[in-house]
Amino acid sequence: MPNDSTAFVDTNVLLYAQDLREPGKRAAATAWLAQCWRRRTGRISTQVLHEFYANLRKAAPGMSLPATRALVQRYRAWQPWQVDETTVDRAWALQDRFEFHYWDALMVAAAQQMGCALLLTEDLQHGQMVDRLRIVNPFLLGPEILDTPA
């Protein structure tokens, strides 16, 4: 059974938290991430961590390479899910069942394997349920939902 406040965080949320060009999305992403850190409920996968590293300096052009690496290292505290053969097989099944793009299906599979209740992303349909995993667009709904009984 998923923990009601455990949130798998998509790469775009991590990136928007660093992007000065998008102040509204930056504020929303920052609020969600702060809540995940405070509650110790943030989750990611190696896929998300690698995408974050590869794109961080585009989102935050002034960030130095050492600062970029330090931020990526900080998110290692969330013990990223290691994408393995089982995750890929589950992603393929999700891809077939929901017609997700492969990379989205891989993220959903990792979130499910980690027992997450929420997947924070703007790339999938807000409010959609994928078995027990709820898709939440963090730019439409704030982290206060974690304080509201289901």
What can you see in these coordinates?
The structure is a single chain. Helix 3 runs antiparallel to helix 4 and helix 5 (85-98) crosses helix 6 (102-113). With 150 residues, the protein is of the alpha/beta class. A hairpin with a 2-residue loop joins strand 4 (129-130) and strand 5. The chain starts with a strand and ends in a 14-residue tail after the last strand. 36% of the residues are buried. Helices cover 49% and strands 13% of the residues. The chain has helices spanning 11-16, 23-39, 46-59, 65-75, 85-98, 102-113; strands at 3-9, 42-43, 116-120, 129-130, 133-136. The longest helix has 17 residues, at 23-39. It has a five-stranded mixed β-sheet with strand order 2-1-3-5-4. The protein has one domain (3-143): Rossmann fold (3-Layer(aba) Sandwich).
Low-confidence stretches: none
Number of alpha- plus pi-helical segments: 6
Cα radius of gyration in angstroms:
15 Å
Question: Could you say which overall geometry the principal axes of the C-alpha atoms support?
Answer: globular
Write down how many β-strands occur, each being a DSSP E stretch of 2 or more residues.
Answer: 5
By secondary-structure content and strand pairing, the structural class works out as alpha/beta
- By CATH reckoning, the class would read Alpha Beta
What composes the largest sheet? 5 strands, mixed
* Assembly context of the chains: single chain
Q: Any guess at the CATH architecture?
A: 3-Layer(aba) Sandwich
**End-to-end separation:** 14 Å
